[in-house]
Input
Amino acid sequence: MPAPDAATLARWREDIRFEDTLRGQSLKFSTTWGIFSPEAIDDGSRLLLDLLEVAPDADCLDIGCGYGPLGMTLARLAPQGQTLMVDKDFMAVEYANRNCALNGIGNARAMLSNGLQHIDPALKFDLILSNLPAKASKEQHYLFLFDSLARLKPGGRFYVVTINGLREFMARTLKEVFGNYDKLKQGKIYTVAMAEKR
Output
């Protein structure tokens, strides 16, 4: 493949824009190269959203939000609650906040945080979700789970989608940390699981 010319490079530097409908919510997205799945909503996120139960007044947390599709959908499904989105990538946070403004979503915001490390400890959530990166370390996964358990309100739920290669690890660790585990769906590539704070 020949090296791209100046016009191609200039085009690649422009924001990528697309629209999609997630859980019945029509959303516009502006993204850029370097953020996860910049040209379309990935199948794992779509599967996770299809299986969520969200109360209209739920306070939600999206860990590893990228440009915001999960958190923005949660905010639309829970209009009486507040949704916080976190990512350790400053570009992801910038685009997530930009996309909230683009869609007129006033009950969601994104901030920089390594997992839950930089979130106000006083904040508690009814629902926490994550499209967990396969490349995250075992230590990082455990931190996500223990920190999520600590931040959930009683009866709160933690939802996660992973590649199938991590499903047995996730089943084991959710049982260890939460004391329960429910596999909601296993597809060809992804598995969605849920645990509850009891």
Remarks:
- The mean pLDDT is 96.
- The longest helix spans residues 138-151.
